[in-house]
Amino acid sequence: MSIFRKKRLVIATIVYWLLLLYTLAALIFWFIELESQNQRMTNYKMQELKHDDPDFLSKVNTISLEEHRKTAQYIGEGSIFLLVIIIGAIFLYSAVLRQIRIQEQQQNFMMAITHELKTPIAVTKLNLETLQKFKLEESKYQRIIQTALIETDRLNTMANNILVSAQLEGGHYQMASEELDFSALVANAVNEFKNRFPDKKWEVSIGADLYISGDILLLQILVNNFLENAVKYSPRESIVSASLTKESRQIILQIKDQGQGIPDPEKRKIFRKFYRIGREETRTAQGTGLGLYLCKKIAADHHARIQVSDNYPAGTNFTIQFPLTDQ
Fold it and tell me: What pLDDT score was predicted for residue 281?
């Protein structure tokens, strides 16, 4: 958040609390004035009474009861108004803070998506221009083609994330539910990443013939996003682990990396839409903040649970638990 926006937020917060204090002060003043008026009316009625009146004591009691009833009425009305004001103030303040956070995240998303679009386009364009202008050795030629394909895959993944996220939120995506070989799906996804990142070290353990019910496109996006995160946030020489096992009545997918890991306070936040750890201006890792948000939503739609924990000795361990579908 820029200094100018921080100043505006501080000024708006100060004005908000001043207006709230003014409203509370007006409510207290209103109660004091009404109670004072009630006292004056009671004294006036008392003065109008005659001591030799046979009903003097009865009238005094009636006037006193009327005074207490008015006081109780003012206290009750004032308490209700005070409660409504406090609840409204809390709700309004929370809504404003939430809107400010969403606006900031959307701006960060626009900054990130702009960078994410420009980088693969520029790299692919440069590679194609190189192939057009020069005759290269076969090894260099293949390496440039591989780089262009990797950047194209990044663009495709990003476009799918944005499109599917919008469709799921808007309720326009018609989710299929078919029995599919999840073992084959995960194995194909891992093999694609092995081809894209041949220098990466992989530890893969995928149980055979494990079936679940779900939407194949959404599940491909989920697996690819977790693998993408593991590759993105781990050093080049480190190991990425992918395992798929059956335990009791569950199929468990685990994706582990050996990166810097995720601090405990951030573990719940990373699944928020547009949320990314750190500041957009200083962040070096690529991404839009949609991947894990989309994974969480896809998992929920498939009745699966996602757990994030620390990997040993370093990094992050994502565990996705799916209900088992018998063949």
Answer: 44
